[in-house]
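Q: I have 196 residues here and want to know how they pack in 3D. Can you give me a structure?
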Amino acid sequence: KTFVALLTSSSLAHGNAFWSPFSTSSASVNQKAARDRIAIVRPTSPFGTESLLDSFELWDAFAPCDPNNKNRNYDVDLYISFSRQTEESRQYTQAFFDVVSKTNGWDNCIDNFFIIDAEMPEEEDIYKESIQMQDRLWVNGPNAQFRSLFNGIREKNIYDCFFLMESDTYPLKTYWLDMLLEEVEDKKPFGLLGSI
């Protein structure tokens, strides 16, 4: 497994951004793997980090994958994406590492874990539903964060697809990740799978 501390989205697309002294894998995640690779991206802002952290409790209740499933065709990388680096995000970085390292076994479903930062200026990190009729940029923060994530992951060119798992997306069944990967396998090739 590779655990990498706070990266910027721009570093995501360049050479050694995924290297980590914590790597326990001899294979480089910088090169396209023989198996398909999917990124699960969990975005958060300074206002939603606590709820995202809490949402992982359901991963303990509903295990993402069957540990006995030897037929998994995908390597799965998990990203936590902060919209911008703040004192709060730096404090939460260790909390996320603790969550991933102290699971009820679901860490075996994840091949690599990364925490990245979209480097968004505070004045652009806007998400205010109350002003949506007056300001067309009311949702600029999540939109800019998505573009940053998408471009960084696309430029890295090691993923076959990625799953944007918002902080209010909760698993309701055990082995939900296995089911997602089966759906991806059944429906590929595709440009967009699921609702928008």
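Q: Anything worth noting?
A: The CA atoms of residues 76 and 159 lie 9 Å apart. Confidence is low (pLDDT under 50) at residues 11-32.
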